[in-house]
Amino acid sequence: MIERWNRWWFPQSDGLDLAVCRILAAGSLLFVFLPFFMTSPSEHIALIERPGGFDQPQWMMRLLAALVPADSSAWPHLVRGAFAVAIGAGVTTLIGLRTRTSAALLTLATWFLVSHDGSYGEIHHPEIVLSLFLLFLTLSPSGRRLSIDALLGGRPEGMTDRAVWPLKLTQVLLAWTYFSNAAAKLLYSGLEWMNGYTLQQSMLYSSLQWGRPLGFRLAQHHDLCVALSIATGAFELLFPLALFVPRSRTALLLSGALFHLVLYFTMNIGFFQNVILYAVFADFRGPETRLRALLWGERRHDARVEI
Asked: Which among 118, 123, 140, 103 is positioned nearest to 29, based on CA atoms?
């Protein structure tokens, strides 16, 4: 059992899959989530300037507040600095320059922004798994492939058993995220959560609050809400199959992408960070091999033409 455990967590790899996921995570954070989905610097500063201070300070905020008083004028500078660090470290993580140090800085800046945003009474969690994945990049050889570090230091020879566990652990976290959500619904509401009325109420409230006409229209159809509730529960309960049944992954990941799209356009609930992290289930070695074969074939063809 120990051998099987080690084979699952620590198989040999050249690091390509981890490198691709590093690029996707840093790139999406840099070009999508920071500018469009995460709270802006001005919104953070507005939270700082409101009376009352923190409502539910997260651990990082409690630590910083012990060093810098919460009413200090330094906090707006901390926010702007965190955004600047996130952007700079996001670029260097993306291209793989001083990869571990860059990933560490990106992790700290992202954790600061997420923790600060969640310290004022309303806690959201779409960034949590992505934030943890950034930490995993810091602790693993994520710059082994597709990086400036690899170009400057020469491509490392051989394989390593340290480049897959971040992907596996992220898979487990995603599976637990969905499964625990379904389990909580069944534990606290039972099958009544799937009666359609719960989803109707949530969809009506959110669609009116955020101006989502599609959600308002769907909420008018009770039978459709029942079907959507059952489909949601089934998807969340079955998602752990993606860990151990490779044939189920395509269907589950496509269902997950559709699930999050429907949530966003009906209720303004965006968990697209999870969709980006579906890449941890992919095997990028096959496409790389085919691309190399295609490029090599074209070069050989060009050489024959020149001769």
From this structure: 103
Tokens of 169: 């652990």
> What whole-number distance in Å separates Cα of residue 68 and Cα of residue 139?
29
The tokens for 180 are 């625990």
Residues 134 and 241 in one domain: no
CA distance 277 to 130: 7
- Looking at the structure, tell me whether residues 188 and 87 fall in a common domain: no
Domain extent, residue 153, equals: 13-163
Same domain, 154 and 192: no
- pTM assigned to the model: 0.90
Per-residue pLDDT tens digits of the chain, which is 307 residues long = 999 999 999 999 999 999 999 999 999 999 999 999 888 999 999 999 888 888 889 999 999 999 998 888 899 999 999 999 999 999 999 999 999 999 999 999 999 999 999 998 877 788 999 999 999 999 999 999 999 999 998 766 679 999 999 999 999 999 999 999 999 999 988 888 889 999 999 999 999 999 999 999 999 999 999 999 999 999 999 999 999 999 999 999 999 999 999 999 999 988 999 999 999 999 998 765 555 555 555 555 455 545 5
Same domain for 158 and 214?
no
